[in-house]
Write a structure and sequence with these properties.
Structural class: alpha+beta
Strand content: 25-35%
Number of helices: 7
Largest sheet: 15 strands, mixed
Shape: globular
Number of strands: 20
CATH topology of the largest domain: Jelly Rolls
Amino acid sequence: MDTNDSMEKIIRDYFNGQLTDGEEVNLMEWMKADEANKAFFFRIKETLCTEDMKHPLLQSSYNELRGRLLLNWQFQTQALDRVRRFKLSFSKIAAMLVVALMTGFSVAYFLVGRDVPQNEIVWFETIVPRGEKSQLLLPDGSKVWVNSESRLSYPSDFMNGDRKLKLTGEAYFEVTKLQGAPLTVETKDYSVRVIGTKFNVMAYPDFNRTETSLVEGKIEIQKGEQVIPVAPGQILTYAENQFKIKEGNTKLTTQWKNDVFDFDKITFKELVVRLERWYDVDIEIKNPKLNEIIYSGVFKNEETIWQVLQTFELTLPIRYERVDFRKFIIVMKK
């Protein structure tokens, strides 16, 4: 029996529930070792008939394994026709589970809303809920850290020409440089055009501004015919239909990906919204005057929401009350 026949039998045994725990581990390691091995695994899976399978957890087992391996396999696909064939083979599945690449980061979902004709561009979207963060590897090798309550999407022709992304929320990018293939991040207010660089974009719809911080490299901000270059160490802000650029500590704006929250002169209202996102809680501010407080400080995400609120009680004229498991109110001290 040659190697391919042997691996095909092992793959079939896996879906029949006939592998031991040790054999399943060996199968995982074999697929991790070479992209061709992953492709072979999925080719065999497409030949299997679900009705003939004996494994009672066949579909959930397959979904879990696909979630672990599928994205890396797709990321190696350069030609659009291969991307389309890959997409069509799973087009009836509404959500593809993606295990985050960084320990402690959340699961993200790449959603497909409907069947897709072969000649149509597909958009893959990762959604990160409140209280979570996620790290992604894009098809070109670029890395993205996506903050809580954010959405990032890219098309199936990402590797054909301009590399285009759409962002709602906040993300930090480490972009792989590809000659002649700039990367563009589209937000609600403007687009960020880059070649290869490290930068952060904050574009939450409920904040009164969109902000881009450049750590290293070079980027251009585009809005209509307007093009604004940004240099390392600069922070560009768009608010009230105006652009502003200032020198600043750009690493401060990226600390969230390391589970460190570092604030410099933000409103208490924005601070509370960020806490709601990071801890997946609801916080009601009873006194509108508290929204006008300007806050600076540093704390780690390993601290509980109660510890954070207790710190606020010591440093601000407030007190908090817990009214439900994940709901708090904040009032001004008398």
